[in-house]
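Ticket #4471: structure output looks truncated?

Reporter: J.K.
Steps to reproduce: submitted the chain below (251 residues) through the standard prediction queue, then opened the result file.
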Amino acid sequence: MNLISIPAMQDNYIWLLDDQNGHCVIVDPGEAQPVLAFLADKKLTPTAILLTHHHHDHVGGVKEIVSHFPQLKVYGPEETRDKGAQIILKNGDIAQIGGLDYQIFATPGHTLGHISYYSAPYLFCGDTMFSAGCGRLFEGTPEQMYQSFQCLAELPDDTLICAAHEYTLSNLKFARSILPEDSDIAAHEIKVLRMREKGQSSLPTTLGLERKINLFLRCHDIDLQKKLNKNTPITKLWEVFADLRHRKDSF
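Returned output as attached by the reporter:
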């Protein structure tokens, strides 16, 4: 398999998984033209579209792409049914798509019906987990998003986090504002800054790296809790998550 990220709009990535036999799967096509241009250039035929949630910057290109490839199957959660999803998926489903078996996880928080797709090592998690950050809580609660993170944290360290936005630098700046002495966060910020100056993507990232640099995966960290002025021991770790998300919203 060949993993490809297509930049779209201001900071989105549309992911393609190319089977290297002329076929591919498209993930969260927020707009059609960059995808159609890439498919034509590489002579690829898409077999499926995977949708993680209903927001326009993830589904806006579905109708036009399908018009060019009428046999295309569109998968997604219930909330994407009116956005073009034909095959509705839910937590615990196993979907055979493009030669791979995808495990479906419900990952509410950003939206209530958000799902993520996992076929080792690929995790297409939409706007749930970003590198060094998490999605905004437009519909769900901090507790729901915390539980979504706990679900994804059960995956192996070599999992490739294929997030949908290039937010890494801003997330790292926020993380460093909370833990300025953390050497892993500081070193990765320098690395990503250099990558972005060269026009390179910071994604995909790995879950192993995210365990070190993503504060939203470190709610159990006593040092982090102390920085947030939390009295330890804390019995509800989602409250640490909620505090972090509140601070990030106004950062």
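Triage note (M.O.): checked the attachment and the full token line is present. The chain has two domains: 2-162, 168-249.
Status: closed, working as intended.
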